[in-house]
Every structure is written in C-alpha cells, then in structure tokens.
Design a protein that fits this description.
Length: 149
C-alpha cells in the first residue's frame, strides 16, 4: 500500500483475543486491588487499623498511642498538655468497628470502617494512624477528631 491508499482500505491491526483478554483482566484486577497496591501492603495497613481499634476497644491507650504516627501523637499531647495515653480517652475517637474498605496509594492508606474512617501512613516501623474519627464533608477535606499537623 502506498500513501494514496484510503485509510478505510488499510487492514486494521488487532490484538490477539488472548492478549486483549489478559489486558482487560489485568486492568480489572488492578482496580479491584486498590489501584495496584500489592496485597501485603493492604493487609499490613488493615492489620495496623485493626490493632488500633482493638487497643481503643480494650482501653489499652499506651498500645493505641504506639500505633499513632509521631506527628499525630505530638499534636494530641500538645493540645491536651498531657501524655498521649492520658489524653487519648478524651479525644472522642469513635470505635470504628470492622474494616469495610481499604485504599492504598503509595505510602498512604484510607480505611473505611463500619463507624469511622482512618488515615494511615507507612513508616519504617510499619503503618501508623495519622488521623482518626474522620467524617467526609462534601467538596471539602475530611473532618477528623484526631490528627497530626
């Protein structure tokens, strides 16, 4: 064919059916897996959120404080002028319940619980809670009762 051949007369190249199906499956899997986040990272974020929730439910405030990101812990202590374990009971963080959804984006995670939303970040020591007691607001950032600066 030369450059004078009409475009409609040119043969169309098509992907083999198996390759096309594999691409569709890969794209679907990536979306269902939280934008391609590896499952171990999602599980680790969920585990950290569950540990935080267990600590709160059991009134184990020292353990819950260990699961807070350093900036969040510092912010709470500065606002309340008390150590984290003494300040956390008054922070009005709701008991979130079970994890209903996890979204991981790089080193950040958003976990939707049955009665709360948590934001976590990945640190050298694992996933830590950056914000808790978060409620969505239309066209605005989440409002969180516990957060770091």
């Amino acid at each position: 064919m030369d450059s004078t051949t009409p475009a409609r007369a040119r043969p169309r190249r098509r992907l083999p059916r198996t390759l096309a199906a594999a691409l569709v499956c890969s794209a679907t899997s990536a979306l269902l897996a939280g934008c391609g986040a590896p499952a171990p990272r999602q599980h680790a974020a969920r585990d950290a959120a569950a540990a935080f929730e267990r600590a709160l439910a059991g009134s184990d405030y020292p353990a819950a404080c260990e699961l807070l990101a350093p900036g969040t812990r510092e912010q709470l202590e500065q606002e309340e002028k008390r150590p984290c374990a003494e300040a956390l009971p008054g922070a009005d963080v709701p008991r979130g319940g079970s994890v209903r959804g996890t979204e991981v984006y790089g080193r950040q995670a958003l976990l939707r619980l049955s009665a709360d939303t948590l934001f976590l970040s990945q640190f050298r020591g694992g996933w830590k809670v950056v914000a808790a007691g978060c409620t969505p607001r239309p066209d605005r950032p989440y409002r969180c009762t516990l957060r770091g600066e």
